[in-house]
């Protein structure tokens, strides 16, 4: 009876060990929550960066248009100044001529006029010429002043736009730095989660092995006790074996991707990525030589090696083999972004709108292999 009770107690202990293993801190769930929060930060920063890039693009258009307006205002001001000077010179010549010849002409007009109205008309004509000259000259002066004011206003607006451009560029650099830091944190959390999951697996495996060992020991003890009771009348018989049955322990699984696959395909992938250096980044771009986005580049490079992979970055990470020993030809995955690893701590990527496919320093991430 005592042996049976001991066997039942051992079974309960085994169940307890299987249900409540002890995990190392921090736990996988804690790390996954941290990763979730950090990925949300990455998404927010990527959204901010996209908005800033759109603003910078519009600002560049505004600066171009404003510059053209300033050039036109300068041309208009130059024309107005020339007209003012021309009218001023014409008026001076007419006044000089009229006053130099004026005495004889005026007396001749009085003497030769048969009617007083003829004299009045002649005098009115002279007065009208003077008034016309003054009016035209004033109009040119006013026009020049308006153009000068417009030019000053446009130049002020141009200065404001240029200051705004400096501000946007600074904000872009700041967001880029924060985004790179957040992506690096996500990469670190991915590694920490993988390590925690491995620790958890090892702890569970150790618990299973210990439970199996104890269960086997208890079963052997119970069997020995039963044999002793059954053979109590033959105490000189050989003693039943009390050796503990061996318990097979499954070998721990090897980390995925430790052995490289088709290195020839990997080299083709790297060569295809190099062939696209300088190609402009285009949202949703899948056209080699003219426009690619990040996942379009990785998909094209693999296609050159005869390997078909999904279109977007998340699907590529899910479909490939995650490896710890990154090799040239692997995809470098970070949330929302992928690149081709070329070795030596470098990768080829299509970074963002306004940029081109280029070689960059490796920024953490997860290695994904298809070759």
Automatic annotation (TrEMBL):
Domain of life, source organism: Bacteria
UniProtKB keywords: Coiled coil, Hydrolase, Protease, Signal, Thiol protease
Bias (Low complexity): 212-255
Coiled coil: 28-94
Protein family (similarity comment): Belongs to the peptidase C40 family.
PROSITE patterns per the UniProt record, alphabetical: NLPC_P60
Taxon lineage: Bacteria, Bacillati, Bacillota, Clostridia, Lachnospirales
Keyword Transcription regulation: no
Designated name of the protein: NlpC/P60 family protein
Pfam families recorded: CC_PcsB (PF24568), NLPC_P60 (PF00877)
Positions with biased composition (Basic and acidic residues): 196-211
Signal peptide per UniProt: 1-24
Domain NlpC/P60: from-to ranges: 263-371
Chain segments carrying region Disordered: 190-263
Entry keyword annotation includes Signal: yes
